[in-house]
Amino acid sequence: MVALKVSVQLEDFSAQEEEKCLLSDRRDIGALISFIGLCRDEEPPLSALELEHYPGMAEAEIAAVAKEASLRWPIFGATIIHRYGMIKPGAQIVLTLVAAAHREAAFASAQFIMDYLKTRAPFWKKRHFSDGTEGDWVAPKIEDDLALDRWLETKPPLP
Amino acid sequence: MKAVYFAWVRERIGLAEEELSLPEEVKTVSELVDWLVARGEGYALAFENRQSIRAAIDKRHASAHSLIASAREIAFFPPMTGG
Fold it and tell me: Domain total for chain B?
């Protein structure tokens, strides 16, 4: 039984709390990977990144990616939290935790989850600048699509 | 059928969602885009570069050829930039 937790939320999260919850006094976990994606400031400086999402589909897509990771690697559990709303530079946007017996499965599945989440989960970022000028939508990076290619060599992509 | 729009697709169309009554000949996502584009300037602007628009049918990713016959909700949005 793999424990998969997905949350799409306005509120901030605590990686320490989520880690404790995922480990839940188990003694067979040998590796825990924690990835936190933060709002990075840019030039010109940002007042915030606005995260828009498609309610329902966002949760479903993240859950599908987590499930696929659990089928590809022997992991015990994963917790994925993605925020939406106005997020200030330095604040947390996304958390991915993966617990496994060994580090190989934990590292690989955490990276797989982030690579797929970026291109499949319906979230969009809009920049708001600190000088009050009209923001613009963040364009997708070609590297994000290329990052998926490494996972296609061994197994077919998600439907 | 309900149509929902996100990010700059929503901004260009000027609506977050609307109810559509489609003529029978509109059967695929691609034909729906043709039909929407003919409705006005905002739609034409939103879909001016069709390769950059993604669609979902009932909250699942869809392609230009996907059939919309039994769809309750169809969504249009730009490539995703989460994470």
Answer: 1
CA-angle at A140, arms to A92 and B3, nearest 5°: 95
The ipTM value here is 0.96
Structural tokens at position A9: 């939320």
Instruction: Nearest by CB to A119, from B7, B60, B80: name it.
Output: B80
The Cα A4–Cα B71 span in angstroms is 29
Residue at A24 is within a domain? yes
Sort strands B73-77 and B2-5 into parallel, antiparallel or unpaired: parallel
Identify whether A159 is part of a domain.
no
Residue A46 forms part of a structural domain:
yes
> Residues of B at the A interface (Cβ-Cβ below 8 Å)?
4, 6-8, 56, 59-61, 75, 77-83
pLDDT tens, residue by residue, A47-100: 999 999 999 999 999 999 999 999 999 999 999 999 999 999 999 999 999 999
The first and second tokens of residue A12, run together, are: 């901030």
**Residue labelled with tokens 């990771």:** A69
